[in-house]
Specification:
Blueprint (H helix, E strand, L loop, with lengths): L8 H25 L5 H16 L6 H12 L15
């Protein structure tokens, strides 16, 4: 943890807590499975998860809108989805 006297310590501490929580989640998951959480294995799992989350697909507006409407069919009613054609 960063001392409170350091400028921006609140943001750094939140960032550090997030990393710590992710590592603890990995260790707890391994303990539940009955595996031995070695430092090298936990580090490799953490880095693979970190790299996987950074590679998100970039959508264009129309791709995003289409995906939103497809996913929203279960939670949206027809009166919620309105199509307006501008000429």
């Amino acid at each position: 943890m960063v001392k409170r006297s350091y400028p921006g310590s609140d943001r750094f501490n939140i960032y550090i807590k997030g990393i710590r929580q992710k590592v603890e989640d990995i260790v707890n998951e391994m303990l539940i499975k009955g595996d031995d959480p070695t430092t090298d294995y936990v580090k490799s799992i953490y880095n693979s998860n970190k790299n996987g989350t950074e590679k998100k697909k970039q959508y264009t507006f129309f791709e995003y809108a289409e995906k939103y409407l497809e996913n929203g069919k279960n939670r949206l009613t027809m009166s919620t989805i309105k199509v307006t054609v501008l000429l």
